[in-house]
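HUMAN: Ready with one sample?

ASSISTANT:
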Amino acid sequence: MSNPISPERSVGIRVATAMFQMGIEGLPRNYELVYEAYSGQNSDLTKEFVAIGKVKSQQALDELGRKYLPHHHEATVLSKTSDHMRHQMASFIDLLEEEKTSLNDYGKIIGEASRSISVEGEIDRETLVKSIQQLSQATEQQTSKSQAMAAAAQQQAQSIEEVKSEIDSFERMKFVDPLTGLANRRSFNKAVAKVYANPDLPMMCGLGFAQIDGFSGLAASGESSGPDSLAGDHFVRHVGKLLHEVNRNGEFVARLDKDRFAFLINSAEESEIMRLIDGFRAGIASRPMISQKNGRSLGNATLSFGVAMSTLANSATELMSFAEKAMVMSAKNGGNRATLYSDKAPTGASRDWMIYRP
């Protein structure tokens, strides 16, 4: 009997087929762009991808990639920023040169006035008045120029701060899921790799995988319009918002794809990790999902959780495999529960905790 094709693998097949049919070159950045468009993680990206038309040039794809997947076009972003900074520095140097010239001219006027006043003998009234007028005019002009210089310098500083903010934002968005504002898979890959950065002394933590129970039914309920890949965005946003609200300890929470989430909790105690997982579950169930069509309550969202401790695994791959098995066990047993990959029950385990025995 053949093995069923997983949803993730199904999307992968669709992506490869679509790229072949549309004549899209098999570049890594193209694959991720098409994958994101078909998986429905970003409805705006999907709409703009479809709007390109049947013939999708590499230029059009790259323009879309720069907007939604900037990490593939970092060189372009940095080049643009570098050009902007060169312009800012050139303008600032011009201002300094202008200030230097103005100060030199002001110094000459002061010197001339000083010499005319310090001449030995009696100073006639006309010379004194003329010197005072010249000095007064030069001082007013210099004051005006200094104020303009200060304003221009402030504007330059603000412009530089905006460039810095753009770079910081670019760096942050490389690792943020656009639909929920949580960390994305790229960020999760980095985080889980750090757990075993020192294989002889892995970080003491727990990895949790979770998926929304009954998500396929929700996505097919007609709550979202457009292609199938867009259905369910409303519910994913709802869960993402609640995860933000309940995550008061600042634990690492990421959206992996579709309705799947990941949690990395820094603790060596299984009971503490499961207590925090229960907190996430309670938070998600604290507010009902509301229909976009008629405003009616669709009930509270629930998740199937699978948790594994880093101490049980020898690598990131093994840790993710253990958490995945535990999550599948939760889903198979009705969902709305957490399954711990362990051979013993933690102290204080609630009744709906399950133990996946390796």
User: Anything to note?
Assistant: Residues 74-173 form one domain. Residues 1-9, 224-229, 348-353 have pLDDT under 50 and may be disordered. The beta strands are 206-212, 252-257, 260-265, 288-290, 297-300, 303-309, 337-341, 353-356. The longest strand covers residues 206-212.
